[in-house]
Amino acid sequence: MKRILSTLAAATFSFAAHAAPPDVKMTRLDCGHMTLQDKAVMSDAGLYKGESLDIVMSCYLIKHGDDWLLWDAGLPKKYLAGPIVEGTFRTGLDRTIVDQLKVLGLRPEDITYVAISHAHFDHAGQVNDFPNATLIIQRAELEAMADTAKASQHYIDGALFSTHVAGGSLKRVKVVDGDVDLFGDGTLKTIWTPGHTPGSMALLVDLKHAGPYVLSGDQWHFSENHARRQVPTWNYDHAGTIASGKKLDDVIAKTRATLVIEHEPADNRRLPAAPRFLD
Fold first, then answer.
1. Reduced to 3 states, what is the DSSP secondary structure of residue 4?
2. Which of the four pLDDT bands, split at 50, 70 and 90, describes residue 4?
3. Who is most buried in 31, 154, 157, 253, counting CB within 10 A?
4. What is the average pLDDT across 33-46?
């Protein structure tokens, strides 16, 4: 990992600027489901004791001109054998991303970019199924992987990225620093939201007809958690989480974006699933 960090400055992947925004459209993919049998893990203030919670893992496929960008990569394929009980988590995966792409006539090789909101197993579990894609990740998340003891304590797993981060060098990786307009046309913007992990980020997607949407990563896990500004017990930084939540709320208010809490079933039910798209 130290050698990986030494190569960050040499990462030269860039996105072509467009004179005018191309057509952009987005669909939702089913990337798993989980029952939290102890919802109290969602509040370091001690809320939710004795409660349970059902959440979803969703991924989002975005077409930007001729490019396909996958936002988050769901649960690892081992959960196809589920539901698997690990501690208080009961987790299952019904279909792989690759299987769902077939509905759209797409192959793994057709995915140009895979952008990861953060390096937790339920957001990056199938990233290695797209070996020709360029991985988009925050520099702070890569740097967090170097402190293996602390990373493990906060469930940050660099091993998930073996296809892209291998042999001590970056392979097909686009390292982003903070808030970045990915294509230079305003359609897809990363929003750095450190706190859940050091390199957590959200994505602002500006659709021509449907308007702007914010895919919020794990800034919040369900609507009531957002409303009460609660911080999960395993978050990397409490104060950072609160500050990032305010930042993201400000972006949503300024842009009048629709918030999609990625683990909230109700938010995801309002989005079309493949093969239908929002544009």
1. helix
2. very low
3. 31
4. 96
Which of 107, 90, 110 minimizes the C-alpha distance to 99?
A: 107
**In this structure, what token pair is assigned to residue 2?**
């130290």
15, 183 Cβ separation under 8 angstroms:
yes
Name residues whose C-beta falls within 8 Å of residue 103's C-beta, 6 or more positions apart in sequence: 274, 275
Beta bridge partners of 28: 60, 273
Domains and CATH numbers, the chain: 2-8+21-269 (3.60.15.10)
Q: Which residue has the tokens 């400000």?
A: 250
Are 234 and 154 in contact by the 8 Å Cβ rule? The answer is yes
Q: Are strands 89-92 and 84-86 parallel, antiparallel or unpaired?
A: antiparallel
Query: Which residue is associated with the tokens 């699933």?
Result: 273
Residue among 138, 141, 77, 139 nearest 108 (CA): 77
Contact (CB, 8 A) for 8 and 170: yes
What is the three-state SS of 133-182?
CEEEEEHHHHHHHHCHHHHHHCCCCHHHHCCCEECCEECCEEEECCCEEC
User: Which secondary-structure segment (H or E) carries 101?
Assistant: helix 97-101
β-bridge partners, 258 = 213
Q: What is the pLDDT of residue 149?
A: 80
**Both tokens assigned to 168:** 């001590």
In Å, the largest CA–CA distance within the chain is 55
